[in-house]
Write a structure and sequence with these properties.
Keywords: Signal. The protein has five helices and nine strands. By secondary structure, it is α+β, with helices and mostly antiparallel strands. It has one domain: Protein Transport Mog1p, Chain A (3-Layer(aba) Sandwich).
Length: 158
C-alpha cells in the first residue's frame, strides 16, 4: 500500500514538474520579487547569492530571500509548480491538502490553505500551484498572516 502511494506521489510530482521543464524560460524571482519578500517579512531581505561560475537554469521554480528581524533570521520563499492541465494541478493540490494539517484560507479567485505542519501557504490558480513560506526557520513559529501578504501580492501576478 505504501509503495503504491509512493508511486502515485512520484507520478504526480513528475506530471507537475515535467511541463515546467518543457515550457519557456521561467524565473520565480521575476514573479516573487525582493520587494514582495520585504513587504511580507516586514524587514529588509536579500536574494540568495548567485554563483557566477554556474550557468543559471532556464527554468527556476523556487525563489528565496533572507533577512533578519529583531536579530533573528527570517526567510521568504515561493515555489511554483505547474501542470499540463488545470485538472492535474487540482488533483495534486487536493491530495497534498489531505496529507498535511490544513486551515482553509478564503482568497477570491483561487484555492488556498495554510498548513501548520509545513508552515506554508498553498495557493492554486488555474494550472499554477504556489507554496509560500514566510518567517523563521522553525515551521511552527511561522505566521499565516505574513504568508497571506505574500500570497496576495503573487496572486495578482498569476
Amino acid at each position: 500500500m505504501q509503495a503504491l502511494r509512493f508511486g502515485l506521489h512520484a507520478l504526480i510530482g513528475l506530471a507537475l514538474a515535467g511541463p515546467a521543464l518543457a515550457q519557456e524560460a521561467f524565473d520565480a524571482c521575476e514573479v516573487f520579487t525582493q520587494q514582495d519578500a520585504e513587504a511580507a517579512l516586514g524587514t529588509a531581505a536579500q536574494p540568495e547569492p548567485v554563483n557566477p561560475k554556474v550557468k543559471r537554469p532556464k527554468v527556476v521554480t523556487k525563489c528565496t530571500y533572507t533577512g533578519f528581524k529583531e536579530g533573528k533570521p527570517v526567510a521568504a520563499t515561493a515555489e511554483f509548480r505547474f501542470g499540463r492541465t488545470e485538472g492535474d494541478v487540482k488533483n495534486a493540490f487536493g491530495e497534498h491538502r489531505l496529507q498535511v494539517q490544513t486551515k482553509p484560507i478564503l482568497i477570491s479567485g483561487v484555492d488556498a490553505f495554510w498548513s501548520g505542519k509545513t508552515g506554508q501557504m498553498n495557493v492554486r490558480k488555474d494550472r499554477t500551484w504556489v507554496q509560500i513560506s514566510v518567517g523563521p526557520p522553525k515551521v511552527t513559529d511561522r505566521d499565516p498572516d505574513q504568508a497571506r501578504k505574500a500570497a496576495d501580492l503573487l496572486i495578482k501576478k498569476l
